[in-house]
Structures are given as C-alpha cells and as structure tokens.
Design a protein that fits this description.
Rossmann fold; three-stranded parallel beta sheet
Length: 222
C-alpha cells in the first residue's frame, strides 16, 4: 500500500522564527500540529504504521509537496507576485509536478515489500543547500542566481520578483531509497516557461484543477 500524505503533516515545524533562516525539511523533522488537516494526516500515517506492524501490510507513506495548479491561497501573495513566477521558484523548494508524484507512487509500490514501513518527502529535487538557509531569509534572488541560474534568468527576463522562501523540502532520501527519478526539476520547468509553456507537465495540464466542493468557496474550490 502507498498512502498519499502531505508535507502539511509537518505543521508548525515548517515555519521559521520571524527574521530567522528558512527551515530545512526532511524525514528527520518531527511534526508539530498546526491544524485539523495536518493532524488527520499524521493520524492516518500512524494507522498505516500500525497496519504495517500488525498484520504486516507493507506501507509506504509519501508526504507530497504542492502539485496543484491553482493560484496561491494567500491573498497578499497572489497580489504581489506573478503566478508563474511563484510556481517556478516553488520548484526550487516546495513544489513537485503531478507526473513525478505518479512516478514516486509507482516506485514506492515496487519497494514497499522490502521496506515494510517508511515515510518519505516527495518534492522536486532542490538545487538549494543547507548553508543557503540564512541567506534565503533576506536575499532570495542572490541564492537563486547562485544555485538555480536558469530560474533566476527567467525571472530577470520577465521582470518578475522572487517570492520569499521560508522552507526547503529535501526529497533526496526518496530519490535514493525508492529509486525514484523525478523529471520535472526547476531547470526543466524554467526551460518550459522560457519556451512560452506553462510551468507544469502535459499530464498536469490533462488532469487540470479539481475542485474540492460542488460550489466554489475560494481558490481551491473552483
């Protein structure tokens, strides 16, 4: 079994102290409950672990980062930044394409019998490093020029401002232990944007946006 969880399960552990460095998020980070959504995710993960212990069902939990096509849920962020710029920068630290989410699930299903139980962060491979965290807190463009020059070049060409980076998801363990090979990296998405295409795969376009409710009530429900 593969359980689709969310990086929201990390809760308050995702948020750095005001004015502090960005947070580095991998499987060693202990979740700190933030809301009902995260609490129910971690509860479901615990039930999956219980099922792996008794009766012995192989289960892999994938904590996926953002892969939805909708605009950002924060009003102030939507007002300040171009949506493509937001998503492009997110591929450096907190976004994954749905095509790579699919391949991660297939890889997890193949490895589950050997693993028994495991949790993994699933996000696009980050070009950022731990020693960038302090600088990310006050100068994102400088870090992008150094670590993700293709992304920085697209932002400069289009005159787009770089949004803040408060966390960095590290999916290197999933890549190594699941033999997962994500294709939609920040550089790949930057090349697609430069060619005039949207910052997502053809599969993501085909899937499209899926409203949560019958009636629109906000950004994620249309």
């Amino acid at each position: 079994m593969v359980f689709t969880s969310s990086t929201s399960a990390f809760g308050r552990a995702l948020t750095p102290a005001p004015g502090g460095p960005a947070t580095w998020i991998d499987e060693t980070v202990v979740p700190r409950v933030r809301n009902v959504y995260g609490a129910t995710k971690t509860a479901a993960e615990d039930l999956c672990e219980l099922a792996s212990l008794d009766p012995g069902l192989p289960v892999v939990v994938l904590r996926t980062s953002r892969f939805f096509p909708e605009a950002d849920d924060r009003d102030d962020v939507r007002a300040r930044f171009d949506d493509t710029a937001l998503k492009l920068v997110e591929f450096c630290h907190r976004r994954v394409d749905v095509a790579d989410v699919v391949s991660a699930h297939l890889a997890a299903a193949r490895r589950a019998p050997e693993l028994g139980f495991a949790r993994y962060v699933v996000s696009a491979p980050t070009p950022l490093r731990r020693d960038d965290l302090a600088e990310l807190g006050h100068d994102v463009p400088a870090v992008l020029r150094r670590r993700a020059p293709e992304v920085a070049a697209v932002l400069d060409e289009r005159g787009w401002a770089a949004p803040a980076v408060d966390r960095v998801y590290d999916a290197s363990r999933a890549v190594a232990e699941l033999d997962w090979a994500p294709v939609w990296t920040a550089d790949a998405v930057a090349g697609r944007v430069r060619s005039g295409l949207p910052p997502r795969s053809p599969l993501a376009d085909a899937v499209g946006a899926k409203g949560y409710h019958a009636r629109p009530t906000g950004v994620y429900t249309t």
